[in-house]
Amino acid sequence: MTSIPADVGSRDGSRGAEGTTPAAPPARRRRRTLSSSQWAAVGFAAPLLVYLVLFYAYPLWRNIDLSVHDYTIRAFVQGDAEFVGLQNYVEVFGSSTFPTALWNTFVFTFGSIAFQFTIGLALAVFFRSSFRLSNTLRAMFLVPWLLPLIVSASTWAWMLNSENGIVNSVITAFGGEQINWLTSPDTALISVTIANIWLGIPFNLVILYSGLQNIPGEVYEAASLDGAGAWRQFWSITFPLLRPVSAITILLGLIYTLKVVDVIWVMTTGGPGDASTTLAIWSYREAFGTGQPDFSPAAAVGNLLIVIALVFGFLHLRLQNRQEATS
Amino acid sequence: MTERKVWWKTALGVVFTALMLFPVYWMVNVSFTQTRDLRADPPHWFPWDPTFEGYEAVFAQQLPALGTSLLVGLGSVVLTVVIAAPAGYALALLHLRGGRTLNFLLLVAQMIPAVVMAMGFYAVYNNLGLLNTIPGLIVADSTIAVPFGVLLFTAFMSGIPREMLQAARVDGAGAWRTFRSIVIPMSRNSILTVSLFAFLWAWSDFIFASTLNRNGDLIPITLSIYNYIGNNTTQWNAIMATAVVASVPAAILLVVAQRYVAAGVTAGAVKD
């Protein structure tokens, strides 16, 4: 759908350009009707513009402001924080938490995406051929995605509980050893990643499934007439034709996963130590997670996170534009 | 033979779904488990001897939190639709100048991590005295849905036939009249989709609730569950009962409005 607004935008842009060349009479006529409705357009968009300035731009500006001052709680109340320039950023980069958080963010994000995507794609292909109950079962797959994150996260926390969790009791029943999923530094990050993979499967399934619907059935029919088996069909037809949708799914997944706070915070609060601390968790913990809020470094980490998210975001937009150009 | 293959697929599908939904089943199961059985080894796979203690606790303690979440969710829905629908109209049908830039800004807005927004809002609300207030939380929660809403409305409204709008103009209807009598009624489905997501996101929000409303008198259900876990780690049946109750809106929406859910998910990512 994002193709459509971009389309409208480009049409709009070209019209604006025409309007500046007075030599073309049709364009001028068009411009006259346009400018009469342009006031209405601005009027209808005005609430959004005001909203974006007040509730996006202003908080973001305040966030940058926080990151270049030294805000303590006292300074926060009195509003006399000292300007320190980029010192907070320097401290963040120099902190011992920084490499850990960066690595954890990397593992958490890419681990989540790899499995969510693979499982989501496998399920999408599975559900593609309709069978009895296929629609109902596919709908039920949405459930984890619709539950409040805190609900899923606390359920997983209890399932992975060392002494009383169902996961460990299954493992020990098969002769394995009890694993301290959430309290051991070796497994905490894996545990939250597993929960996050589970949460992301429905999103991947739905998008990839709708992508599959756009591949015409005749292509498969032709392939099976030529004697291509299911495996061959997947690698020669499904995978290449699904590549544009896959790319967008993965990039959106990256952008969403970078931001994740709730799941990790509820399950491990980023611990033990920094074992499951990602950049988002680090930022949240500095600002809100302890008794002593430290807004300035938290804002610096947050701004760093924005930069990373934007890099992937622009990649996404470029991909989408290129797709529109080719289709 | 095809008959048998199809049957086999259904069986496999049921197994996959059961595996996927196991955590949800487990949440329900634990919510009915007696407190003394919570630490049983092996755990009780089915609540043969169900207790409603957990649910009694929910209804005794959590009603204000549920009410707060409902209020915040509905407030967020109203704010989102009131802001996003006219903007969608301006972008899709009135050819707003600078529309391309605006679209781009909305896409970027969706990429900003909530934790960053939470800090910014905290600083702003701290000055305005909006911390720990319901309106403050409604505004913060609506920021999750507004960019999505505008993009969705723009996409849907672009599909409204131009002839209808021209006919309205010939009849002397202005932009506002056209919006009210033609665009809004025709956008019923997209309004439902946007409302549904705005509600679910606000209902599920934890980050804004735990930062902007942590000391409020009225806290939403997500924060209430979180505090519950912190205060009393032994009563997992009550925690899970609260979790089950907090999931009810999602369950209802899935049953009643499944096709809007699927429409919203795909609209967010894939071009038609």
From TrEMBL, chain B:
**Which controlled-vocabulary keywords does the entry list?**
Cell membrane, Membrane, Transmembrane, Transmembrane helix, Transport
> Membrane spanning segments where?
7-28, 70-92, 104-125, 137-160, 181-203, 236-257
Is the Ligase keyword given for this protein?
no
Its predominant location is membrane
* InterPro entries the UniProt entry points to: BP-dep_ABC_trans_perm, MetI-like, MetI-like_sf
The record's subcellular locations are: Cell membrane
A single Pfam family, by name?
BPD_transp_1
Q: Does the keyword Transferase apply?
A: no
Q: How does it sit in the membrane?
A: Multi-pass membrane protein
Indicate the segments forming the ABC transmembrane type-1 domain, all copies. 66-257
- Give the PANTHER family listed for this entry: INNER MEMBRANE ABC TRANSPORTER PERMEASE PROTEIN YCJP, MALTOSE TRANSPORT SYSTEM PERMEASE-RELATED
The family classification in the record reads: Belongs to the binding-protein-dependent transport system permease family.
- Know the name of this protein? Carbohydrate ABC transporter permease
Report the source organism: Isoptericola chiayiensis
